[in-house]
Design a protein that fits this description.
53% helix; alpha+beta; four-stranded mixed beta sheet; single chain; elongated; 6 helices; 14% strand
Length: 198
């Protein structure tokens, strides 16, 4: 199975499966070592048991990652297809889980066009205005000024995406960024948001 990149459709479900598989494999080795040591020495009270327990630590850490990954699921296929149709040539990010010190924001889709960033969240726990401010602050900290609007209604989001895809985006002065050679401004903004997403 090809590994999906952050911001692509299906990433969260694949990430969840990979996290649980990795946890299983990391715990399988110490378990086999424990059983082999017990069979060889006839007792659990030996150094092999201590080694097996210590080797469980990375697997336990991976279980924590898998539990966090399990909280989020990939977006509905219909929403993905509707957004793909509406966005035209505008770049988009899907399945973004952004965290701040105060809370976590789940943004189903985010479409960029010039200075406009339009997003949609289906999560009733996500405060759309605070999520937009968080994205705006993250981009501003990296010297990119962006208008960000997060919608909680799918139809309003798709209408706005169609509107920005239907007109020529505002020309934004851009010199390029040494951290992201060869990327356009929109691609850099998507890369910055993907970098801070789980």
């Amino acid at each position: 199975m090809k590994k999906l990149q952050k911001g692509t459709y299906g990433y969260l479900n694949q990430n969840k499966k990979r996290a649980w598989l990795k946890a299983f494999l990391l715990l399988l080795g110490p378990f086999i070592l424990l059983i082999a040591g017990w069979a060889a020495s006839g007792t659990r009270l030996d150094v092999v048991t201590v080694i097996a327990v210590v080797l469980c630590l990375p697997g336990c850490n991976q279980i924590v990652h898998a539990i966090v990954a399990s909280r989020y699921h990939s977006i509905d296929r219909t929403l993905y297809e509707e957004t793909e149709e509406a966005r035209g040539a505008c770049p988009a990010l899907y399945e973004n889980v952004l965290t701040s010190y105060e809370e976590t924001y789940f943004i189903d889709c985010l479409v960029i066009s010039g200075r406009d960033a339009v997003g949609y969240t289906s999560d009733p726990k996500t405060d759309a205005s605070r999520a937009g401010e968080h994205i705006k602050k993250t981009l501003k900290a990296n010297s990119y000024k962006q208008n960000v609007k997060i919608f909680t209604e799918k139809k309003a989001f798709l209408d706005r995406v169609s509107a920005i895809a239907g007109h020529v985006p505002e020309e934004v002065p851009f010199k390029g960024d040494d951290r992201y050679p060869g990327l356009s401004r929109d691609e850099i903004i998507l890369s910055l948001i993907a970098a801070v997403s789980l």
